[in-house]
Amino acid sequence: MLWSPDFLQYDFGPGHPMAPTRLDLTVDLVRSLGITEADGVDVVEPVSADDATIARVHDVAYIQAVRAAAAGEEPDLSVGLGTVDDPVFPDIHVAAARIFGASWDAAGAVWSGRTQHAVNVAGGMHHAMPGAASGFCVYNDAVAAIRRLLDDGAERVAYVDLDAHHGDGVETAFWNDPRVLTVSVHQSPATLFPGTGFATDTGGPQAPGSAVNIALPSRTTGAEWLRAVDAVVPEVLRAFEPQAVVSQHGCDSHSLDPLSDMRVSVRAQAQAARWIHDLTHELCDGRWVALGGGGYAVVEVVPFAWAHVLGIAAHRPIPDGTPVPDAWRERVRDLAELEPPEVFEAADVEYAAWDDGFDPDLGIDRAIQATRKAAFPLLGIHDPF
Length: 385
Fold this sequence. Notes:
Layout: H1 21-32, H2 51-54, H3 60-70, H4 92-112, E1 117-120, H5 141-151, E2 157-161, H6 168-173, E3 180-187, E4 211-216, H7 222-240, E5 244-248, H8 266-284, E6 288-291, H9 302-313, H10 326-336, H11 363-375
Parallel strand pairs: 1-6, 2-3, 2-5, 3-4, 5-6
Helix pairs in contact: 1-9, 4-5, 7-8, 7-11, 8-9
Pathway: Ketone degradation; acetoin degradation
Domain Histone deacetylase: 16-310
Keywords: Acetoin catabolism
């Protein structure tokens, strides 16, 4: 696990949805459960990336604009700085570079074999573009992890994005690169930021089939969401045969999240994380970089969803019914005046597998079929439906 309290410096200020408290509570919860002390688990201090490393992903002029804004110059709105989504704060460059550097180093550790799995819950900044900030994201650490894997010798890298919002920055970075498969499971762009990621968006002319987008209806439930993930993700990853997987575990698809219209439970999110983990062992000797992402139900959802990801990556999955530590619950009461859950919910969610058949009267099935119809032929997958 890549972690430092300095991650909390990535702070857009009071009232901004991306509150650093969500990271603090997550790590506190994981430590209270003893996961960070388990055999084989290391907590590694992240190192901020230098400008040359960031320039493997971002335009030099943009990096200079971020630095200038951090130094107190008027932020450049044309590159997304100083907006409501991405207000400037004094540590903006250093804080974003630290997140970027953590994912860059995580990928290097995974590819070199120093670790099988690496997790950066502060990461997952999937909206940042080569020359602009977007959607709370300044530097794109997900692209950094993929770029590092490619630089170090990987020939095929799969990226799976489970955030409620389309992983547009990552898709853009590798739109025309056949070495990278980007798979995004998100609320329909017709109803949610960033307005991209339709099923028919399948990659550039030099990389047809390299982008797979599952655009789901509003109010998709956990069982429906798992049906969609199961109907697409395993098949496209098996067809692509990646040598490493980078995944983004934004948990803003939850029913309590204020920034999406989805109805996915923590149980379903944990189940999908287990699937991704198992696929990495099946397909690429367990080489897996897992990142955080969106998630704005700061107390009720984020710490639980990401504790599951960290437990799975540590090969210490949190069993259903595990008591939530009393000290952590007391801290939450003091912090947010909320009554936190008493136990973890981790039992599998029952869902209808795609093999049961396609029902054209269901919105979820129409969304799944649109993706399969658009992407599967380009990946050489036969679709019986």
